[in-house]
Amino acid sequence: MGSYVDVILCAVVPMDACHVLLGRPWQFDRNVVHHSRSNEYELVDKGKKLVFKPMAPSAIRSMSTKCEKASSMFMFASEREVDEAIEVGGCVYLMVVTEVPSVGVENDQLAALLKKFKDVFPDDLPTGLRLIRGIEHQIDLIPGASLPNKAAYRCNPMETKELQRQIEKLMDIGYVRESLSSCAVPTLLVPKKDGT
User: Fold this and answer.
1) DSSP code of 147?
2) Helix or strand holding residue 45 (H, E)
3) Which of 103, 121, 160, 170 can pair with 176 through a Cys bridge, CB separation 3.0 to 4.6 Å?
4) CA atoms within 13 A on the CB side of 103
5) CB 51 within 8 A of CB 42
């Protein structure tokens, strides 16, 4: 930026507001002072005081319209730039783009992998609860302490009927069983995208 040169480890995220966001780690490492009223950053680099000022709104607007017009603008390094980065020992990331097979065409490697681990991807889920293993988790209650007994969430008749249907289905296949505990967990129904 101007005469200021720095190397910063960046997290790459899509942003519309700016190209680079210099956050708290950079400010702390460079002993930067942020003037919030003027939105300026002040630091000393090689004994010289530098002040970073924000761009004017008109400059930002003109820059964004130029970017919209330049639809062929790519942010990829050229072969020469990659060679130079490798020569100086820089970190280079390679992105390989391959054609995705169309829907219905089965990938041989994927089919072989699914066949190899068929027991992990069964067609139907097993019924009943899993076998009791060595480590069991429990919530230890304080003897004699009163439980927070609050009213359940209100459900309309349709939600109540659907909740009862799903609980009966889960009980039939053995995923849940009736509890005699005085504790309960509220259940909420969330509609799917198709409206069910």
Assistant:
1) P
2) strand 40-45
3) 170
4) 0
5) yes
Phi, psi of 51 (to 5 degrees): -125, 120
To which residue do tokens 């970017």 refer?
67
The answer to whether 178 touches 171, Cβ cutoff 8 Å, is: yes
User: Can you point out the beta strands (E) in the chain?
Assistant: 33-35, 40-45, 48-52
What does the alpha-carbon distance between residue 14 and residue 174 come to, in Å, rounded to a whole number?
Answer: 46
pTM: 0.31
Among residues 189, 184, 192, the alpha carbon closest in space to that of 158 is found at: 189
Angstrom distance (rounded) from CA 105 to CA 119: 23
Locate tokens 């509609």: which residue?
191
Identify the CA nearest to 28 among candidates 17, 46, 41: 41
From first to last of its 196 residues, the chain has per-residue pLDDT tens of 777 888 887 777 777 666 667 778 888 888 989 888 888 889 998 888 988 887 777 766 666 565 555 444 455 677 787 778 778 877 667 666 667 665 554 567 777 887 888 877 777 777 777 777 776 777 777 888 877 766 666 778 888 888 889 889 988 888 888 877 777 777 777 888 888 8
**The amino acid at 70:** A
Delimit the domains of the chain by residue range: 1-95, 150-196
Rounded to 5°, the CA angle 74-76-81 comes to: 135
Encoded amino acid at 157, one letter = P
Phi, psi of 83 (to 5 degrees): -60, -45
